[in-house]
Amino acid sequence: QVRLVESGGGLVQAGGSLNLSCVVSGSRLSPIVMGWYRQAPGTERELVASIGRSDSNINFANYAHSVEGRFTISRGTNNAGDTVYLQMNTLKLEDTAVYYCNARWALGEWVDYWGQGTPVTVSS
Q: Is 91 helix (H, G, I), strand (E, B) or coil?
């Protein structure tokens, strides 16, 4: 059973930083893409950043325009499993949302798994 467990959300003042983490367990194959999405109240879920597996042909990071230069996505593997991080700097009020971790596999078709979400609140 594949599980994604996020951590690192919370309350921070504008201009501050947070680092989100997400551990993927239960799969012997590393996800081809891992990423972070967010959803603010009354809006649709949107892509924040994604990163491909190092041995794939999508071995690069992709960012939403609104976070370029402020957020950095990275991934690695440890004893717990595949992990994706999102370092968020210079946070703005509009970054307030629930952040969801996503892991995607290419198994003849795209297969997606999601974390439960971690809230990020940026205050003035």
A: coil
